Amino acid sequence: MEVTLSRRPAVDLRFSAPPSKSYTHRALIAAALAAGESRVTRPLDADDTRLTAGALQRLGVPVDWRDGGIAVTGCGGRLPPGDPVTLDLGNSGTSLRLLTSVALLSPRPVVLTGNARMLERPLEPLAEALCALGGRVTSLGRVGYPPIRVEGRLQGGAAVVDGSMSSQFISSILMAAPFAEEDVELSIPDVPASRSYLDVTADVMQAFGVWIERDGYTRFRVRSGSTYLGREYAVEGDYSSASYFFAVAAVCGGRVTVDTLNPASAQGDRRFLEALSRMGCRVTAGDGSVTVERSGDLRGITIDMSTAPDTVQTLAAVAAVAASPTTITGIGHLKYKESDRVGVTAETLRRMGAGVTVGSDRMTIEPAPLRGVTVDPQDDHRTAMAFAVLGLGFGGVTITDPACVSKSFPGFWDALREAGLL
């Protein structure tokens, strides 16, 4: 199956943002470890969040998807005993990383693994930190990569965490930290990648009753004996997924409004809107909605997107139709994602006719007349959606394996179809 995009100029559209994937993952974990019952309302129902929910069930936590929400019976930080268990988390890096620390709360050995690409995604900084906190993390294949076996217990204490590849290493420990035997204090030697996601983690933990003491992004402390409390929790809209709709306005011209967004969200991918504004779009926020309009030419910019990693490819697509070059920095860690997103994006834009220069932590896009191509997203949902949007700007772009968007946004193609874009 393939999807081919045709040119769609001058749009005037309205969409609803799907629920946040990042918030849904974290809410599921907090609810699973909480004391009492929780209901997660308006969760994202996608491949990745289903993997997290399924893994929690395998660890002995009742998780029931029903009536548009998720009912979770929390274990109070005490996962039930049982036989050794293996959690196959596909290509959901968020699921595997966040659940690695949760596995230390289980009295039985837990093996965490995934698909072929997952086995290429580094995990050593998290494993080293957990060992410093009392756990035992053993690589079952290549050292420092999944599959891993987690056993022992989360004693607590102090640890240094290298978050330069992923802030999820830090978030993972923080989410399990309330149930350590001692306080947990994490020192972060370098600026963590995608650091805004640590704010999302703190936001969810606080919503479930646990506070993090912190000094910016360099030190975090969680008190032993803190407890998540069961509650009803509504998941906010996702700025990463909304970026594709905003990019339609920027690439095609016209106006797009996206509903069900929190204008004051902790999500770092809100920075995408700042990028569009600097490029010449008009951005306005209403009560739970954001509108992007573009009538004139787009201008190139230089911008650090280290706090908004999931919108880098979308921004690169917009940059390809601007009137001048754009340089995107803070992107070195994207090679550790579902695919090497920097390499895939650069190679695809070059095939389309754009000039692209890549450095260790930056990419410069030189706009040029574009031609349609066939894009193999390499099982990466964000590649498929970013280049689909670019295809709407000039046509002739075919996306193979369009179903890969089910990882984060199963309704993406339906949303475009209902808007008359397909």
What order do the helices and strands come in, and which of them pair?
Blueprint: E1 2-5, E2 11-16, H1 21-33, E3 37-41, H2 47-58, E4 63-66, E5 69-73, E6 85-88, H3 93-102, E7 110-113, H4 124-132, E8 135-139, E9 148-152, E10 157-160, H5 168-176, E11 184-187, H6 196-207, E12 213-215, E13 219-222, E14 232-234, H7 239-252, E15 254-259, H8 271-279, E16 282-285, E17 289-294, E18 302-304, H9 312-319, E19 326-329, H10 341-352, E20 355-358, E21 362-366, E22 374-375, H11 381-394, E23 397-400, H12 412-418
Parallel strand pairs: 2-15, 3-14, 6-7, 10-11, 18-19, 22-23
Antiparallel strand pairs: 1-23, 3-5, 4-5, 7-9, 8-9, 11-13, 12-13, 15-17, 16-17, 19-21, 20-21
Helix pairs in contact: 1-2, 1-3, 1-6, 2-3, 3-5, 4-5, 5-6, 7-9, 7-11, 9-11
Question: What is the topology, as strand order, of the major beta sheet?
Answer: 2-15-17-16
Named CATH architecture of the largest domain: Alpha-beta prism
Q: How would the global form be characterised?
A: globular
Please tell me the overall pLDDT. Answer: 95
Q: How is the biggest beta sheet arranged? A: 4 strands, mixed
CATH topology of the largest domain: UDP-n-acetylglucosamine1-carboxyvinyl-transferase, Chain
Describe the structure.
- With 422 residues, this protein is of the alpha/beta class.
- It has 2 domains: 2-18 and 237-418, UDP-n-acetylglucosamine1-carboxyvinyl-transferase, Chain, CATH 3.65.10.10; 21-222, Enolpyruvate transferase domain (UDP-n-acetylglucosamine1-carboxyvinyl-transferase, Chain, Alpha-beta prism), CATH 3.65.10.10.
- Helix content is 31%, strand content 23%.
- The chain has helices spanning 21-33, 47-58, 93-102, 124-132, 168-176, 196-207, 239-252, 271-279, 312-319, 341-352, 381-394, 412-418; strands at residues 2-5, 11-16, 37-41, 63-66, 69-73, 85-88, 110-113, 135-139, 148-152, 157-160, 184-187, 213-215, 219-222, 232-234, 254-259, 282-285, 289-294, 302-304, 326-329, 355-358, 362-366, 374-375, 397-400.
- The strands form 6 sheets. A 4-stranded mixed β-sheet has the order 2-15-17-16, covered by helices on one side.
